[in-house]
Design a protein that fits this description.
single chain, 153 residues, three-stranded antiparallel beta sheet, 10 strands, elongated
Length: 153
Amino acid sequence: MDVRTEGAALIVNEQTVLRLRTSFAGRAPEARIREAAATLTEAGASSRPTSEAASGRAMVKVGDRIIVTVTAEEASAQNSTPEAVARTWARNLAEAIDLPPLRTDRRSLDARNDRPAALVLVGSRARTASVSLADPSLARISRSTGRIRLEPL
């Protein structure tokens, strides 16, 4: 399982699983998401992600480890309830964990007509996957979360 953060987003296997918008217990969203990534990495994928509600808050858990707490403020920033946000994030996390090591959408790359194209890549090996061109003068290759972009030169 490949776990990383980007700002206040938790990215698992090149899928954005959740994005925090609020602080909690004196910790900014970016600090909270780094803690969530560390906890998730330690917990691994041995248990299914679940959501659990308690005391006006909800949590996303893996096994008995709390990955992230959803407060009423966070839920409001997400235009939802703590329980609904936690359920969505737990489902997103489960889907990301279940990905094969490398998956792409066959229809995602269409490099016709000298237009930019993006190759969608997800999975635990997606971040280390590479694309090369027989003739590098044909296009510029760049990366973003879950994508490799080719731009004709």
